[in-house]
Amino acid sequence: MHANLGGEPKFMRMAIELATSNVVSGVGGPFGAVIVKNGDVVATGVNLVTGTNDPTAHAEVTAIRRACTALETYELTGCSIYSSCEPCPMCLTAILWARLDTLYFASTAEDAAEAGFDDSHFYEQVALPFSERELPTVNFMRADGLASFNAWRTFAGRVEY
Ligand SMILES: [Zn+2]
User: pLDDT tier at 12 (50, 70, 90 boundaries)?
Assistant: First the structure.
């Protein structure tokens, strides 16, 4: 367990208010996120899926993109994210890729499911071997695919992340 990681209520209130006000904005679902560094808000995000025809425009992803733009970095080490709801598998992974220090969330995935946003199903799918997932998934031409990694390994200008 992680100790001494109490969240700041004012930032969670902000995330929840963003989520609630997004309901009447007509651009997406009731989700908001706030990214904080050293006690300051770096970026906020709301769900923009329907307004932008972008199924990846969840609040957390939107906030991560804006925070990285604001800080001119691809890693958010030293930052925390406050999400109005427990992140879906995509957002959780985006948070991990962004190397955020801490995740705080208010509503749970169970609460989201009751409101019609059932990403707990995706969590179950992710945990399965790909041969058992609902999404038909085929691994082929593996040896050919290695060409890309060989090119990466020998590219002097690569930026490791
Ligand atoms: Zn998400």
Answer: very high
* Catalytic residue flag (residue 132): no
pLDDT digits (tens, 9 = 90+) for 103-117: 999 999 999 999 999
Instruction: Note the Cα 114 to chain centre separation in Å.
Output: 21
How far apart are the CA of 139 and the centre of ligand 1, in A? 26
Catalytic: which of 60, 75, 114, 134? 60
Ligand 1 centre to CA of 6 (Å) is 23
Report how far ligand 1's centroid is from the alpha carbon of 71 (Å).
Answer: 22
CB 29 within 8 A of CB 47: yes
